[in-house]
Amino acid sequence: MSVFPKPYADLVARLRVVSGFVLVLAFAWFSLPDFRSLAFGLPVSLLGLLLRAWATGHLEKNICLAESGPYAYVRNPLYLGTLLVAAGLVIASQRWLLAALFAAVFVLIYLPVIELEEQHLSKLFSNFAAYSKRVPSLWPTLRPVKSDARFQWSLYIRNREYQALLGFLAGEAFLIAKAFFFRIAP
Fold it and tell me: Considering only the top CATH level, what class is 6-180?
């Protein structure tokens, strides 16, 4: 049974990219990073980025059900990685307003998109129902599904995850510049 009505989920799936740009603008405008917040936030973001990279090296979209790598622990490692990246950026920003904004976007946009994608996967792969019973959606299990599949750089490239890395590096450069060169005293 769907938690979100399909027309709503379809709408927010189309708005996902636009909402990302709005978040970037809000983050650029409202963040107030300093050395300490960067020291705590950036490692959290880096963990999320590494999780996303690991996941894309195991993902062959619409060809086979990903059950190896991080998919052995959690069904949606890309979204969990995105959540970690955002959490780290919020920590670095030192702004509760941005935390509330990121949380609202995740709940109102990403959760319905996850539901749509899982509906798609259940139609595409007959083994998805069994997999989803063994592996949780967003909170990793400590009992992973066993798999011999290995990380593939070719999948990382094909899935264009290097774009997330470039975006992350640009965001980090912006935060560092804002913290050290454009800091406005309260």
Answer: mainly alpha
